[in-house]
């Protein structure tokens, strides 16, 4: 690496290029002064040869690479160097202006060398972020070259002509226009050319050319390009694709001659999993479906099957939720389903999914909680809603009116069977809905024992495990994660991890938060406050029950109506001397509003979510009705039916060696004309209703955090929750 002490002089000659998106032309203006750099071994200068040309030189139109590299608009300049006893290494650098209104990350650059009007590419069309951390010693230049004297020690003059094109890349989405300018710099160094070798960079992903730099023999490589690709993750550089180790900036060059480093890129999610299916056949069952449903007529669909987690490695962490890979389609699309139910609701008033309460909840409540979903999820995915036998693939038997087009849906019965049924990874010991109708009045659901049950009517409220189909170009980070439960693949580009000093209320449901040194999950954002729920049940030391995890709801139906009998949960949670007093720090808490809307077998889930009596503001698109619903405003409350995380989500499975807990109170009322009971999520994750002082269940408190609460560290994953302040 060349030390900066060898820099004898720097020519800083600015060339400003103004880009206006709203017009199809632009102008360039530059400093007309030409400055020679005097070096001990000679001199070098840069000359902008089209100095008197004020015509359009750089296009302001948004364009792709194939158009940009052939654009007639370019900046042409010549570098002239004269060297004698020592050689001169020079670097060209681009520096965006500080007052640009168009971000430099949206500008592509393309440098060529010109000989008799024939151009040779010197760089691929690269974004500024790729050029900046590229090949040169100060980490900024876009190109290097050496001017050497004659072998007899006499001076030699080298003249090189260059053309630099710049255009607005297709990543730019702001159509209102703007300006962009940059400066072109020339750096010069005295070097002994016999001690340097040229290292070229092969982009190795289909782009036509790479970068290069000069590296001193037996010295560190120094700064290496950090490349960007919208469809891949750049992993690093290797001399050979199959080398075990990457070339690092601190590595000493063992090569003594010019050589090339190859860029190593990640596979897309589909490519990675297709490749792995060939090496882990014991974990994956491939069925010859010959399915045209996703566009490939003669290729197989890969279904994950069994329950060997160490072998399957089909976990994905996306948008605060843990998912499982269910199937890989021939064109690389991947179907996912959440590992756990996200809520517990009724399917709807009929078996028709389209327009049902289930459809509404998935599209209106759940889908908005998925980051960057328009770029991740297939927007026109088809979901089979056909009555089917357990051995009939609904994709093969699909006929008109058998499918609905949605961005989020549920699994069908055939997919559950292919996973291994009760012996497969999809059996989680809870009740949850499938999309497949059994007959004109019943829809399949999976039972606590893992059976595909067709006996229940639509009056039962079971768990909801949303399913999505992700696009073929979605990238899994398979370098940092291995697909196991504690190291699930992450989807790149979905704003997965919150940043330090980011407001917590910019995050969406599912991510983990550490509060008072205990684990919580984000439920949602209400009035700019972040609603969180404890991941485990709490104990009530004042309870008369010998098992302190159990307690009655309260002395009456309405939450927050304290009774002198402090064995009730509403007393212990809301009283100043109760559970709140056990928290070390409550400075981030703010009172929240908890709705007690009614929720019956024949009512939509929205009755519970929304405020519904006349003098209360309704939320979302609910219809107001005139019953005596009630709300509670305070520092601690409970989840309501239909809310995110309102299914059995406790991480606590055993209270003692002989007791397992799966039942918890909700805040939701169960009647209109004769109010007599409160909903709870009972064993297996379905909803039941009980009088508030007739049965004892566990609770998981919910809290509201102030709007100014910020993330101080953490990634939001269960093993690395957000630390807040």
Report what the structure shows.
The chain folds into three domains: 4-193; 270-470, no CATH class; 504-705, no CATH class. Strand 42 and strand 43 form a beta hairpin. The chain is built from nine helices and 46 strands. With 725 residues, it is mainly β.
Distance between the termini: 43 Å
The largest β sheet comes out as: 8 strands, mixed
Radius of gyration: 32 Å
Quickly give the structural class: mainly beta
Outline: elongated
Helical percentage: under 10%
pLDDT averaged residue by residue: 77
Q: State the helix count.
A: 9
Summed up, the domain count is 3
**Strand composition percent:** 25-35%
Low-confidence stretches: 1-38, 51-58, 133-139, 280-299, 611-628, 654-658
Could you give the count of β-strands? 46
